[in-house]
Amino acid sequence: MPTDTPSTPTRRSIRTTRTDARRLRRRPVLVLTTLTTAFAIAASATAMAPAPATARAESTPAIALASFTKALPDSITAGVATSVPASKIQSTLDRADDAVAASKKVTADIATSKLDVGTDDTTVETDDLAQAVSDLENVSALPLLLDTRDATAAVEEAVAEVNEQTGALQGRLDAAIQKEKERLAEEKRKAEAAAKAAAEKKAAEEAAAAEASRSSSSGSSSSGSSSSAGTTKRAASGTSAGAAQATARSMLGNYGWGDDQFSCLVSLWNKESSWNYQAYNSSSGAYGIPQALPGSKMGSAGSDWKTNPATQIAWGLGYIDGRYGSPCGAWGHSQSNGWY
């Protein structure tokens, strides 16, 4: 790349150019201020000295500088007025103070937040504004002789530049604060979801363990029972939907549930699997009559959970008891949420 290609002017160089231009405009003002001060001192000294009678009679003021005496021209002493009202000058200076205060505040707020606002430079340059304010204060000290319009405009321009930088930093800080709020909210959501999943898993495991314990006790007590017990066992081993429902009805007594709960259970598992012990949801992986997710959960009720409806039903009833308290409780949840 050629080395003599002009580079893009930076914001600092632009401000320096503007500052130099304002300083050039101030030079005539400073010269006039010096001369005016000298004139005023000389005029005071002359006024204090006794004047001849003929001089007192003259109406045109005069200034004595050494041995040279010259009357002030009418263009200086007559018709001179403040170019910018004093009230506007004061309001401009007040806005300058507010701009500086706001710039310091946003810098302090960023430091306190300890957030990444996307830039290392979190300060606002106010040197130009300070110089412009000083110039305006100097010029406005002699409002009858000096034009305050340029100095006022310079302060207003510097205030606008400071406010622009302050606004940009404030926008970065607000964005960083919002991002941090969203991050904390997401972390809280994940923690709550993990806690809920852990609680559900624990409840299901406890329910399965309780059901397995009840099934074991029931099996031991029925080993020497009459032929009617054998008939019940054969019905429990049936694989049709009707046989599976009969098995479920026979198990309800273990939980103290009646026919009203059986009706809710029929509706619930009709919706889930149509009482098909081989029902499999390819999308979620749920399996069996109760649609356990995953199906291997039912292994806690028996190793034949894939093929025996009775094993699936035993696990399912234990899950319902531990999670919802009753089949009607599970059915109501399923109707409201689409799952149980």
UniProtKB/TrEMBL annotation:
Residues annotated as signal peptide: 1-49
Record key words, sorted: Signal
Low complexity: compositionally biased ranges: 206-241
Chain residue ranges for the region called Disordered: 205-241
InterPro entries: Lysozyme-like_dom_sf, TAT_signal
Zinc recorded as keyword: no
Keyword Iron (UniProt): no
Name the record gives this protein: 16S rRNA pseudouridylate synthase
